Amino acid sequence: MRVSSLPQFFDKLSPAPLVIMILVAAVFSVPSVVYAQDPYPNQAIAFFNAKECPGGWTPTGKLLDGMAGRFFVPVMPNGTTQHTVEAALASGENRTHTHSFSSSITLSSTYINGVDGCCDNSQTSEGNYTFSGTTAPSSSEVPYVQLLVCIKTEGPDSGDIPSGVLIFTAGLDCPSGWSQPAATQGRFMVGLPPGGSPLAIFGGDPLAPHEDRTHAHSFSDSFTPDSKSLSQAPWWKAWGYGHSGAQNYSGESGTASTGLPYMQILQCEKG
Predict the structure, then answer these.
(1) Are 230 and 116 in contact (CB under 8 A)?
(2) Parallel, antiparallel, or unpaired for β 71-74 and 262-265?
(3) 80, 210 contact by CB (below 8 A)
(4) From CA 50, how far away is CA 40, in angstroms rounded?
(5) Which of 62, 98, 122, 268 is the most buried (most CB within 10 A)?
């Protein structure tokens, strides 16, 4: 049917022209499918060195909570995608952490001949002395860069994506033609250094689901207690004083998180 013949068509169906007109208008106003100008699948998540997302992409902050201010970690086996750990970083924040510590020293016994009078109690006694505390906050010194994160909200355009490309996705499963890589699961990702091998694994074990990885530090040092001279009387002898001299101590701090905030999220590799 040509559009130019619609008035004559409505005249012949005068009992219900309004209904037919609405129906025809609805048919002719069906929007066409919108495609982005790239072949990446819907719900793909990517970083951009830009202030605004490109066409077909939307800032994740408008659709997904918790991504801003966090590192991304490929979700691990039995993990929950989009689960977050630690408070998000503020813009330019240098995250700090503290450690508890405790140790002890043992002052060996010594005696003194010729102390004036009985029982000079102003001196430190022999025995074991413990101490504890909390370190001053220190930076984790993690180097990072802030980039705009966008999610694909329109269908893919035609085109090929190279094999081996890794993307994050807000979906629960990888798109057709993509699969979940095993080597990256539960690990932070770092750009390949010169001479490095792709997918080389370093550091500790992969993160467990929801894990806030902790660490501790060993420590050791020594100090020398102040010494003190005493007035003497030849007929008196005192004992039980702590011996002056270098005192060594060592131990291991309490465990603490480095405070790295991250979101575990599904990662997919193009086959």
Answers:
(1) yes
(2) parallel
(3) yes
(4) 18
(5) 268
Q: Calculate the CA 151 to chain-centre distance.
A: 20
CA–CA separation, 44 vs 124, rounded Å?
A: 68
Show Cβ contacts of residue 111 under 8 Å, excluding neighbours closer than 6 positions: 237, 238, 239, 240, 241
User: What does the alpha-carbon distance between residue 121 and residue 130 come to, in Å, rounded to a whole number?
Assistant: 20
The domain total for the chain is 1
Q: Report pLDDT digits (tens) over 192-230.
A: 778 878 778 888 899 999 999 999 988 888 877 766 665
* Residues of the chain predicted below pLDDT 70: 1-36, 109-126, 226-244
Query: Which residue segment(s) compose the domain that 108 sits in?
Result: 96-139+214-256
Q: Which amino acid type is present at position 22?
A: I
d(CA 25, CA 116): 114
Check: CB of residue 177 under 8 Å from CB of residue 270: yes
Model confidence pTM above 0.85: no
Is 109 within the bounds of a domain? Answer: yes
Query: Does the residue 155 lie in any domain?
Result: no
CA angle 261, 134, 143 (to 5 degrees): 30
Query: Which residues face 249 on adjacent strands?
Result: 221
Buried b (16+ CB within 10 A) or exposed e, 5-24: eeeeeeeeeeeeeeeeeeee
Q: Which two tokens stand for residue 66?
A: 């918790």
**Pairing verdict, β 96-97 and 214-215:** unpaired
Q: Is residue 4 part of a domain?
A: no
One-letter amino acid identity for 72? F
